[in-house]
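Quick question, first post here. What does this chain look like in 3D?
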Amino acid sequence: DAISLDYTVVGITGDQAGEYTCSVAVELEGSLANQTNTVTVIVYSPPDPPTGIMVLESTEDSISLSWTIGFEGSSELTGAVVRYQAEYPGDPLRELVVDT
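> Answer (accepted):
Ran it through. Tokens below.
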């Protein structure tokens, strides 16, 4: 009968991402057998929020904004969502998707 064992590593942080080599050796009746496998560990993390949000220009019906992108997380940023709401009561929160 085959024996199956599992081992889970938890709590890996972003600075621990990379290639790992796992080896298992068993001894049975004086014979040693081993198996080695290499895996790539990818740690997914969300991006930091933008900083330095500034109004560059505003008119009666438009606004130009600027911000600084921080740490992009574990993948390249492809866009941003700008949420805005007028100052008068009852105006709904609106969203605008911006491609980077």
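The longest strand covers residues 18-28.
The CA atoms of residues 21 and 38 lie 4 Å apart.
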